[in-house]
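User: Okay, second chain of the day. Same drill as before: sequence in, structure tokens out.
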Amino acid sequence: MSFLAPLFLAALAALAIPVVLHLAHRERREPIRFPSLAFVRRIPFRTAERRRIRDWILLLLRAAAVALLVTAFARPFFERGTGGAGPLGTAREVVVLLDRSASMGYGDRWSRAVDAARATLRSLGPDDRATLVLFDQAPEVAVPATGDRTRLEGALAAARPGGAVTRLAPAVQLAADLLEQSTLPARSVVLITDFQRTAWDGATEMRLPPGTTQEPVPVGDDTPRNVAVTDVALARSPADGGRVTVTARVANLGPDEVSVRVRLGTNEQTLQESVARVRAGDAAPVRFPPIALPPGATPAWVAIEGDGLAADDRRPFVLRPIPTIPVLLVEPRGAPARETLYLRRALELGRDPVLGVTARTGGFTATDLVGQAVVILSDAAFPAGEAGRALAAFVEGGGGLFRAFGPRAGGTPSAWSASLGSAAGAPADRLSERGGTVGVADYGHPLFAPFRGSRGGDFSAVRVFRYRRLELPDSARVLAWMDDGGPVLGEVRYGGGRALLWGSDLGNVWNDLPLRSVFLPTLHEAVRYLARHHEPPASYPVGHALELSDLGVPPAGELVLEAPDGERTALDAVARRAPVILRQPGVYTLRPLRGGGVGVPVAVAVDATESDLALLDRDAFLAAAAAPPGAGAVAGTSQPGREERERRQRLWWYLAFAAFLALASESVVAALRPRRMNA
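Assistant: Same drill. Structure tokens below.
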């Protein structure tokens, strides 16, 4: 035992003062003079030294109270022992962090990790507590703090590696939060992982509490060998009833060049095979010959021969037929063929999705809107009467409208101009200046998605010779401006639908946009945006939060989701509102709970970063997780400081309480003493 304030112990000497005074006291011998002794009886005079203590109990209680209070003020604490078990002062709070990410399935890593975790649990002392945390991209407390080793080992035996990526920082931070709540004198974190390089970005902050001991248990390999299918790209074409070309990316993450057999299949049937030769540390594309697209969503896969990490040897995906977006194209009557050529040809080139165009000249009827997703008024007037009301209702109900205000377009009827915008007035003439330039206001808008980043399109090269200034509602969003400050492209929301307004034509008359490389992708993206077209990806990464609405599932009716391992989860109307976490690699199937029917497949693949088994700088990681300098923690050998150990043990509180009990007992004994003497 040690003391933070040992000088207070000097006050224990005060215990001897009442005892010494008591023992040193003598009877008084002062003579008293009397005038006569006739009436005084003669009694022998006796003297006695007070050499013994008459009331030991009271003296001991009072001395104990003083001694306990003095010791409490000295703030005692137990020094920590070196073993895992021991007295109260060495009881440990242990957090076992066990990596269960996909990379832990490589070779015998998982079995070695489980053995290390089991050895840690079996080394716990009788006063120790442990928390078992399983982690991949997010940590999960499998067993909260307990001293029940049977429960801990049972949860450990049931654990399995999954398919998610590794993220070390969230796991360490969870351990820090758990240890902060502990009152035990010693705290430690046992981190069992392969210390994968991609598991920590070097910037995410994490900090263990002062005095925490780090016990890293690395199970990685210095020179791992792994070949993986890291990506699958699909190129669909409507030719020949629908064909798809599958291109797989095979990465060699080992030290030697390899030759690997690559197979393409659907369900359990192999359709095609190829051989890829991949250099060390490189990747190679494997392109299979086109195959026919199935009539419905069908699970498919690309696989290689098995190696040390089976999770990334097979990459599932879903083949779907090419969807069609129905488009109603309305052109002005009497327009030359050369003015309609560019737009018609651009719409015909829409192949994924296919743009199913229905063309009308001069106008349309309300019946023409049935079954359409987008209406394009290319230099055509907004209709009046019944057709105008039907078009406004079409947009309000969720349809899309694209208007190009060319020479023949005119404005918008007053009944709809305030809601859908217009472009009245004489056109602005920039011909004398050899045309004006267009500036995009916001590349973050979905319309410009094809031009973000390194694929950016050069809209400034477009020359606009004439344009109409847009008159937009206050709620509208301007997407592009002319260099003279006039809005030339805007978006209007009306009810549940969208409308895009372009202040010039699409026929290479007032501008040269149809001749520029940005024309085709911008037009196709505009149609997809207005139609609210969304197609699920061919595969999702493990851990993705899936919104069922992304799959186009009807909102009514109960569903059941079957996981790759066969586990079935019923989804009622309430559960369907929450995202579904895809935790397993493979193919999920979503189908009606009752009545059977064709299921909707959902492919889930291991993230490509998990295939890179190279190791990170372990020392740098442990140093980043350790407590700040001077706080009592050093990576790998940290011990709690004297103040920290005393604070955790709080022995002074127990001593002060014992002193209170001693004083209370002394009061009771002192009160009963006179009665006992008189009895």
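The chain is about 20% helix and 25% strand.

User: Thanks, on to the next one.
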